[in-house]
Design goal:
This protein is an all-alpha fold and about 220 residues long. It contains twelve helices and no strands. The chain folds into two domains: about 150 residues, Tetratricopeptide repeat domain (Serine Threonine Protein Phosphatase 5, Tetratricopeptide repeat, Alpha Horseshoe), CATH 1.25.40; about 70 residues, Serine Threonine Protein Phosphatase 5, Tetratricopeptide repeat. Helix 5 runs antiparallel to helix 6 and helix 11 runs antiparallel to helix 12. The two termini are about 20 Å apart. About 5% of the residues have low confidence.
């Protein structure tokens, strides 16, 4: 189950960053050109421009970040892993000069998260996320990742409290509910899990992702009872 959720979260965050844009990049830079090519679906062209970014020192850390995303989507995992090594070094150098950049801390954590399916670098991911949250304490995305990383490490207590912190602010956060439900089921707290699922059904409409998932998960629990 956790491995399946790892994949789901990876895809989710790729979508988040695709739609979020890179507002901090100066208009007209090589990095912008790469993102424009990426937006047109020209990933091969984007990769070449991103490599040029690295050569010319333009947004080097984020160029590596984006290269890794593209390679992962293409299923080129060995090459993506190799790029992640360079990305980590680039982020460490960047953050030494810009420790106030909370998004860069999150991006570094995200790299460690993806690697941790094989390298188990969850502690490094958690450390980077906590630094991001020190700078942006109410960021729900960072909190979601922190909760998930804690869960993957086996620290269910901290994971649960983190997801509940998100839900205190936004009761309709689907992913926080989803991971909380899985923790409750994992710990044998099925009554609480069913209550969470019932809440999700009440707060969403038939046909929505949250409704469909909660309905199916509730049927599975009732069937297993």
């Amino acid at each position: 189950m956790k491995k399946a959720l790892l994949f789901c979260l990876t895809i989710l965050m790729l979508v988040v960053f695709w739609g979020g844009g890179w507002s901090e990049a100066e208009e007209g830079t090589l990095f912008d050109q790469a993102m424009e090519a990426r937006g047109r679906g020209k990933d091969g062209e984007a990769l070449k421009i991103l490599e040029q970014c690295v050569e010319e020192g333009v947004e080097v850390h984020r160029a590596y970040f984006k290269m890794g995303q593209i390679l992962l989507e293409q299923g080129k995992y060995r090459r993506a892993f190799s790029v992640s090594e360079k990305a980590i070094k680039a982020y460490e150098e960047y953050l030494e000069a810009h420790p106030e950049d909370h998004r860069a801390w999150w991006e570094l954590a995200y790299i460690y998260e993806n690697r941790s399916a094989y390298t188990k670098e969850w502690d490094k991911a958690q450390e980077a996320l906590e630094k991001a949250l020190d700078l942006s304490s109410s960021n729900s995305l960072y909190l979601l990742h922190l909760g998930w990383v804690c869960w993957m490490k086996g620290d269910n207590e901290k994971a649960e409290s983190t997801f509940r912190k998100i839900l205190d602010k936004n009761p309709d956060d689907f992913w926080a509910h989803r991971y909380l439900v899985e923790i409750l089921i994992e710990e044998g707290r099925e009554k609480e899990a069913k209550e969470e699922l019932a809440f999700m059904l009440e707060r969403s409409s038939e046909g929505e992702m949250a409704y469909n998932w909660a309905e199916e998960r509730l049927k599975e629990l009732k069937g297993a009872s």
